[in-house]
Amino acid sequence: MWEDIYKENKRLDIIFMSKYKEDSKIYEKNCIELMNEISEFANETKCFKYWSIKKMNKEKALEEYADVITMSLSFFTILNVKLEIIPHTDTIDVLYLLNKLYSNVSLLYENKSDKLVKQIFSDVLYLGDLFNFSDKEKYDACYKKMKIIEERLNSDY
Fold first, then answer.
1. Share of the chain above pLDDT 90, in %
2. Which residues contact 125 (CB under 8 A, 6 or more apart)?
3. pLDDT tens digits, one per residue of 104-141
4. Which of 82, 86, 111, 139 is deepest in the core (most CB within 10 A)?
């Protein structure tokens, strides 16, 4: 299943990178973008908002989650890493896992490591499990997001 998502995301990444190949800071910007997408997802889930009584909007959370998946997959393309899902961080604590993702993305900024790319992606997939997103929901959200990305690439977004 993730191989199909990866291939489509890679196709879009190649278009994106050819369109913006003059930008010498794409890698650094993508590290910040991944942290931003993780933050937008966390914000949508409200998992850290102990002061809020509002419930998570699952549809909006899935949209943000798809952004995290597609952005994390981009590092496979950028660093030419073979897609591989490795054991995820062993925790059931969402807050710990989110903080671990931030930490690992910061490490990835400093160290372009295949292992970190795989760890981040595996942890992102597991994060969706912790929020009880089904594989079908994850898959559908990713394809919906990639369709939007393709439309943006074909416009002056």
1. 77
2. 2, 69, 85, 88, 138
3. 999 999 999 999 999 999 999 999 999 999 999 999 99
4. 139
Q: Answer yes or no: are the C-beta atoms of 37 and 64 closer than 8 Å.
A: yes
Task: Give the chain's radius of gyration (CA, Å).
Answer: 15
Of 67, 68, 69, the residue nearest 6 (C-alpha): 69
Local confidence band at 156 (pLDDT 50, 70, 90 cut-offs): low
- In this prediction the pTM is 0.93
- State the Cα angle at 58 between 2 and 153, rounded to 5°: 55
The pair of structure tokens assigned to 73 is: 């997959």
The DSSP secondary-structure symbol of 64 reads H
Given a contact cutoff of 8 angstroms between Cβ atoms, the answer to whether 41 and 54 are in contact is no
* Torsion angle defined by CA atoms of residues 65, 67, 68 and 69, in that order, rounded to the nearest 10 degrees: 90
Q: pLDDT tens digit string along 63-85?
A: 999 999 999 999 999 999 999 99
Q: Residue 63 in contact with residue 145, Cβ under 8 Å?
A: yes
